[in-house]
Amino acid sequence: MSFLSESRFLAFFKGFFVTGKQPAKPTVTVQYPEEKRPKPERFHGRHVLNRYEDGMEKCIGCELCAGVCPARCIYVRGADNPPDAPVSPGERYGFVYEINFLRCIHCDLCVEACPTEAITESKLFEFSFTNRDDAIYTKAELLVDDSGKPKVMPWEDWKPGDDANTSAWTRATSPAGRADLEGTPLWSGELGYGVRPPQAGQSDPEAADVPADFDISLREVEGGELRGVGLSAVRPVRRPGAQGGRDAASADRPAGTGASGAQASGGRA
Question: In this structure, what are the phi and psi dihedrals at residue 12, rounded to the nearest 5 degrees?
């Protein structure tokens, strides 16, 4: 037997060895759909239209969500609130609200654009349709019920926790890198849930130690995408116990760096 033939012969049994040792390893298979893995805290799933704790609708029919949607899957029409029976606290309310989930990419831009936190995303992603009409959710299907819970459609597989802390990324404890806002809820209460709790503090030692706007510029500088006089890739460190959040980080920042320095130097080359 030549050396080449012997190598092929051994490689043949090595392949079987890779397969044969798998039964001895711990099982990682999940018995789906009866058993499901926990979903991430900031999971983007099926949308819901929320109510205030007094039962009034949060949507004011401003159509900002439809305007910002990159997939153009949202259709909204506002109407004036009836003086004798207002639907929302504002002058107008969402008279028509539709989302085409055949187009939706779950980017959550509609959630970010909404000024009243009316539209948020749950953690439900397991829903399928037998016809195209079912994929277009109307206001009656998106609006939470009188207890604040999402309405369950026949083709949806809701599990406990799918409606918990919807659109969690919008409930960050330190918006725009401001440590002084940590733990301060900046959102209104919701029917059935009250004021949802904020996420864990960002002053944790493992958390980022620079404001978000400078961090973006830092990555651009390091990647060579942003060049100009005064720009630096030196990362400022927020000292433990320093007050003022953004100001504390700015104290260590070289002059002309960060978002403001990028604009002063002319931006991208």
Answer: -60, -45
Strand 119-121 relative to strand 47-49: parallel, antiparallel, unpaired? antiparallel
Q: 63-70 long-range contacts, Cβ below 8 Å, gap at least 24?
A: 64/113, 64/114, 64/115, 65/110, 65/111, 65/113, 65/114, 65/119, 66/110, 67/113, 68/109, 68/110, 68/112, 68/113, 69/109, 69/110, 70/105, 70/107, 70/109
Dihedral angle of Cα 247, 248, 249, 254, to the nearest 10 degrees: 80
CA 114 to chain centre: 14
The span from the CA of 97 to the CA of 259, in Å, is 38
pLDDT tens digits along 148-170:
899 999 999 888 888 887 877 77
The DSSP secondary-structure symbol of 156 reads B
pLDDT band at 139 (very low <50, low <70, confident <90, very high): very high
- Write down the domain spans for the chain: 47-171, 212-264
Q: How much is the pTM?
A: 0.64
CA distances from 31 to 19, 91, 161, 235 (A): 22, 50, 18, 46
String of b and e for 29-40 (b: at least 16 CB within 10 Å)? eeeeeeeeeebe
Kindly state the tokens that stand for 134. 């079912």
Domain 47-171 has CATH 3.30.70.3270: yes
Helix residue ranges per DSSP H, 24-78: 64-68
Encoding tokens for residue 151?
């309405």
